[in-house]
Amino acid sequence: MSREISTCPLRLRHYPGHLEPEYAYTLGIAGERFFREIKENARIMGAKCKKCGKIYVPPKLYCEECFEKLEEWVDVGTKGTVYTFTISFLDEHGEKLEKPEIYALIKFKGTYGGIVHRLGEVKPENVRIGMKVQAVFKPLTERKGTINDIAYFKPIME
Amino acid sequence: MKDVAVVGVGCVGFRPVTPELSYKELMFEAAMRAYEDAGVNPRKDIDAFITCAEDYWEGFSIFDEFVPDQLGAVLKHLFTVSADGLFGLITAYMLIKTGHFDIVAVEAHSKASDILTYEGIVNFAFDPIFNRPLGGHPYYVAGMEMNRYLCETGTTLEQCAMVAVKNKRNALANPHACYGANITVKDVLCSECQFYPLKKLEISPLSDGCIVTVLASEDVATKLTDKPVWIRGVGWCTETPCLETRDWGRAVYTELAAEMAYKTAGIKNPVKEIDFAEVCDMFAYKELQHLEALKLCRRGEAGNLVEEGVTQRDGELPVNPSGGMLGMGYALEASGLQRVLEAVLQLRGEAGKRQLPEVETGVVQTWRGIPTATGAVVVLSK
After folding, report:
1. CATH of domain A24-155
2. Does the residue B212 lie in any domain?
3. Which one, of A153, A138, A134, lies nearest residue A35 by Cα?
4. In chain B, how many domains are there?
5. Contact by Cβ (8 Å): B274, B267
């Protein structure tokens, strides 16, 4: 087996430092509409390019391909398909999770892009690429206008 | 137009920690070695300096201000390329191609061991509105990508594990590599599953080190050395920053970068014209995906190449004879120059125990890591 080598700099001579950047990221026109619809109406919206016909999820103000401004909004529904997924056994600090998290890219029929989110109400060993899933929204009073207003996506029969 | 050659390389590392040197001293050591190798005096001979660094890796705002002194570049022409070292090398190539510069030095380093919150910094590279609020370990993106790549190509878990076995074994013969090991496919597959289907031994651990390269125009290069290594083609590409719209099965950024590099190099049939490859294997499956993007095999075939031993050091197409990043460690922005270092040593015939016989042309590729879809490709020849 490979060796375990200490990479802990705190055990070496060092000077401690700390950066604490804080920002208020502007949602922008497309982002605001997207999150407002999620928060107020539990709807997932895309934006359609009138030139190439692609429907972007999440919506953008412009088309990646055509560089056109996107102005047509489309309700893409809350059901989609697992395009790919992973089971993460580590948390955001690299520590082992007690309960592994499932992350997936969910694609919506007839659209371009998708939503990266967590899966819930499913055992990790039962997740498959191509599985049909549906967004589970938090209750209206708990929704704040962020991607976490969707609690997770859960498998559905279809 | 004049050709451009690599005329000097200097390396310190790579190691998991570097307790005795500050980042400045690390850079100074590598620079001294590179200038000695090239036979140049930085204070007199070098026209411009490029450093490749990203403020968040360094823990500095405007890191480039902290660079000139340790490179011999005070009161000289220096700037930062905020990307992997291979982008710096390409920039130096272009500077020399303008005809206004004869000798340019390129530096990239990693003092990753100074970073206490690596995952946090990588998370900070995620889209702040659509992705970052999900939280989690940023490498979940690699697990998702590997899963889709396997699904689309039929590549097996064993074939991915074989990449880790090969590269860690290659690293045993490389004095610049610190993660060399004699392991089996079973060891890899039984190592901790961290981001299904990605295993712990398929993930490049971080490492510290620094590489400086010296590039020169054709007439200067031939005066400085009898072993110039020519930069024949360069290419780079960013697919899209969006996780949602990118291609999860193919490394499109490398396909397009390779197309550009092969075109500038006049390479029509990479399989025939490339003798060896040094590619980004930050995660074992990435080596396979990148080989396909470099057109060194057809899509979905890279797994077979590693299984049949074609990419071994004694195979028909050696890949990562250095040990790759799995063997040398993920050295942040120095990762691309790790690949260049090995290609230069191989083409000069100075790779010691791991020297490949009769190599004329090598291809070097880099990827900017999670969560990017950015890569660069350089073709080097004797």
Report:
1. 2.40.50.140
2. yes
3. A138
4. 1
5. yes
Quick: pLDDT tens for A42-73: 999 999 999 999 999 999 999 999 999 999 99
Question: What residues of B are in contact with residue A90 (Cβ under 8 Å)?
Answer: 137, 139, 194-195
pLDDT in tens, B343-357: 999 999 999 999 999
Asked whether residue B240 is domain-assigned, the answer is no
Give mean pLDDT, residues B105-122.
95
A interface test, pick of B244, B248, B252, B283 with most A CB neighbours within 10 Å: B244
- Chain B residues touching residue A85 (CB < 8 angstroms): 144, 147
At residue B22, what is the residue type? S
Question: In CATH, what number is assigned to the domain containing residue B52?
Answer: 3.40.47.10
CB contact under 8 A, A103 and B240: no
| ipTM of the prediction | 0.94
| pLDDT tens figures, B33-46 | 999 999 999 999 99
- For residue A112, the model assigns a pLDDT of 96
Q: Which range marks the domain in which residue B45 is found?
A: 4-116+206-224
- Judging contacts by C-beta atoms under 8 Å, the chain B residues touching residue A114 are 244
For chain A, which ranges sit under pLDDT 70? 1-9, 158
* Domain range annotation of chain A: 24-155
Contact B181 A1 (CB under 8 A): yes
Cα Rg of chain A (Å, integer): 20
- Domain presence at residue B188: no
User: Edge-to-edge, what's the strand order for the sheet holding B374-381?
Assistant: B77-81, B48-52, B103-111, B208-217, B4-15, B229-238, B374-381, B361-367, B276-278
